[in-house]
Specification:
This protein is of the alpha/beta class. Helices cover 45% and strands 15% of the residues.
Amino acid sequence: MKYIFFSGKGGVGKTTISSAAALNFALNGKKTLIVSTDPASNLSDIFEQNLKEEETKITGTDNLYASEINAADSLERYKAKVLGDSIKDLDNDVVSMIEEEFKSPCTEEIAGFDSFTGFIARKDFDVIIFDTAPTGHTLRLMSLPLKWTTYIEEVKKGEGRTCMGPVTNLEGSIEVYNEALRILTDETSTSFSFVMRPQELSLYETLRSIEEIKSVGIKNIEILINQVLPDKLAKFNTFEEQYKLNEKIIKQAKETGYKIKKYYLMPEEIKGLDSLKKFILMEDKNYAEKYFAQFFDGGGNTGCAAERGNKYSNKNADTADRIIINKDNNININKDADISSNTDIKIDIKENNSNIIAKITDKIKNQTVFIFFIGKGGTGKSTISLLTGLYLSKYKNKKTLVVSVDPASHIGKIMGVESLEQKPVQTENKNLFLSVISPDAALSDYKTDTMQFFKKVSNNADSLKVLEEELNSPCTLEIAYFKKFYNYFKLGYEKNNLNGNANDAGININAGDNLNLNGKINNALQNNTYDNLKDKFDYIIFDTAPTGHALRLLFLAFEYQKENKNNNSVKDEELEFLINTITDKEKTYFSLALYPEFTPVEEAYRAYKDLKEAGIEVSFLSINYLLNAKLKSIKFFKDKINQESKYLNAIKEKFNLPSLYFEQYPYEINYSNIEKFLKDSFKL
């Protein structure tokens, strides 16, 4: 039995490579299951088949099955597992109390984790492949088996009550969690593949993540370098420097001593079984050489595609597949459509982008305005956030703070700032500040603040002991992280008429009763963070974590509000302010980041609908990685540019929203060249 994990920063190609690996095992006779642990999974998109948590056989294969861990389904199954038939014998008051326990925002994490460990316990497959969430969240997932088993054992020695209810409800899971931990650390059973791009920041992130994953006890590690430029692109001046950087990074990766594989940049989307099969074949050097020959050696549609009866070849650019939108607003491909290639959307990028930002700046009226950039990993949210922040601070003279809520953020490195924390750091541009929410710092501060506050209002030793146990729960991180995020909105809130009593903290301390720490975000738990954020900013820009985790962070506000109402808690004025602010389109602007390919467009649309359902309006799109039309002279990019134009038309019809546009920059974005990219993106 083999377990293979694919991890890496968002957008590096984890789903493509893990799906191709799963298909390859299946084609070689291995019964294979691929599982996505990403809240914004794209397995359904790449296999062109609706998937759910219960494994589904991939149509057109004999041995391949797929599953997407779904938060809602995991929660219902976990509730049934914990409660069993015992709920029949309980009175209504007890049932109500149990239901309240399951409304805890952290319950989804443990339910999803429980599903994950359940897959590891499976013995009915030859290979199980995990297509994981972007790096920071995967590292969290890998550490949970140890954290939960340790936590449960410690609670058993104390009051016997966890943040998920009585420890007896979870005790049966200890064996499963221990088995998961054993399998994860068994290098004969489990391997961990880190996917990266041939870029300095990507290599840095990969090596940092490898050290963290090794600390959990995982030993069998390899590095997969994706989107490597084909050698023949090096002869074009546009790509000469980028090719040299590719080679430099590949050499540095090999020097680490880890097993290295590289995958070439493809001139087409990888979507569907046929394209996945081609991607697998690209690992064969001879096949790859023949494949690329058709683009660079004047071979037309000959070479490897012709040898295989054109089964995998692209259509001619003048008869390219037409991208259409069906009645459900999903993008489909009309395979028989004949459409002219003259579909390029003519955009004056600098004029367009400047006009959109001007509409925001024109509305500011002595208040802090919030801008969120949300999207699939790898859509360029960090770069777009920094470009927007630079433009507002330097050329609009607005005091601007760019905040990263992504655990794998690199905004500091991009801007030449050595270290970041939640306290804003001023850059060389006096109006631009940077900040990042660190999970470790968030958890440490939350524990310290909570304990200090409790000791001021109670000397009950038993309650203090229970509080300490609850704070050690792995669930506490989500509450702590949200509280840090929530602090930024205090910049726009006048603190008055707040009593600062125990109830303001959401802590129930009645006569030594068990404590309920679900939803403690009120201002009574003062911390130093707020003191560090007293300066008023004109704009606060949030560079968010990839879509599923970003939405989770935002929706926690609504869950906490609902929980307060259900518990008849004192009205949390700051929480109400937060919700009113993020749903006010004059104060908060949401932009979905995407690029013109199927998966990021579909994911952006799913996020668009989820936000709309919560009462949050998307203000504009940020469309990234547009290929310069001049590249059409290189055959390798011709079909891709034609396809890109069609996706741009589809995006316009699907969303009907104004859009920022950004061309694909031919170099890695860093401190030395971001100003040049800014000048190419805005009218200065």
